[in-house]
Amino acid sequence: MEVVNQTKRDDNQLLVIMHLSQLLTFITGFGGLIVPLIIWLTQKEQVNEIDEQGKAIINFQISLIILAIICIPLAFIIIGIVGWVILGILAFVMPIVNAINASNRVSISYPLSFKFLN
């Protein structure tokens, strides 16, 4: 039995695509979680930094879903509507900012993320 030494490769383009794929939520309504999840699961053993960034993206997307659900009953007292607007802005801006950071090899961060995956 031969053991092959596999080293991880650098692939900034894939990292950028993974961050920007979150914007599919605005087009399809659900792709922003599924596409990054598939990229992360299939490439986490082959690409440097994709495991950490994939976990951050999945944590962010699940956090957005939970926070949007929390805003439903709060919508009756207007706070929920403000919450949805803030979540919508974050869901649109943060993937773009972090895609730029990933392409420049700068650390990424997603605000309001709960740590589901560590």
How would you describe the overall organization of this protein?
By secondary structure, the chain is an all-alpha fold. It has one domain (12-103). It has helices at residues 12-20, 24-28, 31-43, 50-74, 79-103. Helix 1 runs antiparallel to helix 5 (79-103) and helix 4 (50-74) runs antiparallel to helix 5 (79-103). The chain is elongated, with a radius of gyration of 16 Å.
The structural class is mainly alpha
Q: Estimate percent helicity.
A: 55-70%
Number of distinct helices: 5
Helix/strand order, N-terminal first: HHHHH
List low-confidence stretches. none
The tally of strands reads 0
Average pLDDT, rounded to a whole number, is 90
- The end-to-end span amounts to 33 Å
In this structure, how is the largest beta sheet organized? none
